[in-house]
Amino acid sequence: MTRVRLLMSAAAIAVALGLWFALTAPPDRLQGEYSRLINIHVPSLWLAFLAFAVTAFGSVLWLVRKSHRWDRLAAASAEVGVLFTGIGLFTGMVWGQAVWGTPWDWQDPRLMSTAVMFFVYLGYLALRNAIDDPLVRARRSAILGVVAVVQVPLVYFSVNMFRTLHQTQSFRPDGSTMPREMVVAMLINLAAFTVLYVALMAARLEMARLEDAASPQVGLAGDAVRPPRLSEVEDV
Amino acid sequence: MSDTLVVVGTFLISYGLIVGYAVYLHLRRRRIET
Fold first, then answer.
1. What count of CB pairs under 8 Å joins A to B?
2. Helix, strand, or coil (residue A123)
3. CB 3.0–4.6 Å: which of A24, A111, A112, A142 could bond A59 by disulfide?
């Protein structure tokens, strides 16, 4: 069994276990069945934060070492992060419709900062697709990858810094505002999604490595441009 | 009952997106290998 298949199998088992805990944990007295969404909403956004932090890490290392593997790591992680930010936004909107009576509030700092983060990283992926030269692509996306990660703490602490419709963190160092069974289910899902991230990253990196090996290697930017040979220039 | 359906549907769509992405990676990898 290959490494990717082994990781995917482990992720499938972990996510199935997490789903079982999510569906069997006691529902909230006020929110009812909708409270179960915490088991996918929170882990998705935790994973998005982790993914964008890894993108920044890969970007910094590319800028320092100029090794192609760090660029691949940054790109792969951003792609996975965008997927999970999208899932986090979607599940949040379903949850918001049920408990707030609206799926979206355009004045809510947490919702808006998350949406901006989603579109910035979509832009990161678009930027990568728009540039053919590997070196130029890696440099420009590395700069964006480092700058864009500023949004992660902004999104996370937006509920503490501003008055928002979105609640503050339910799980804090000084304790939890949730019953123990719900906390256990959420933590199991956080762990399961982390395993899922590792598995998806392994598959995405393997694919990128094969893609690079299959495509003709381009060296430094401007390699194809040669200085004119003055001896070949005829006088006019 | 409808609340349960909405919640189960949300889980299904979310996990469906994740599985879809994993399948996409698998198919793209197979296309590169052949």
1. 60
2. helix
3. A142
Verify whether the Cβ–Cβ distance B22 to A203 is below 8 Å.
yes
Which residue does chain B place closest to A31, by CA atoms?
B3
Q: Strand pairing partners for A171?
A: A176
Domains and CATH numbers, chain A: 3-168+177-210 (1.20.120)
Total number of domains in chain B: 1
Domain that holds residue B17: 1-34
> Residue A109: enclosing H or E segment and its boundaries?
helix A109-130
Residue A235 tokens read as 């006088």
Strand-pairing partners, residue A176, are A171
**In this predicted complex, what is the ipTM?**
0.94
> Phi, psi at residue A28, to the nearest 5°?
-70, 145
Other beta carbons within 10 angstroms of residue A159's beta carbon come to 18
| Residue of A219, A209, A220 whose CA lies nearest to A76 | A209
Using CA atoms, how far residue A27 sits from A18, A43, A131, A165, B8, in Å, is 15, 18, 49, 22, 14
pLDDT tens for chain B, 34 residues long, are 589 999 999 999 999 999 999 999 999 999 998 8
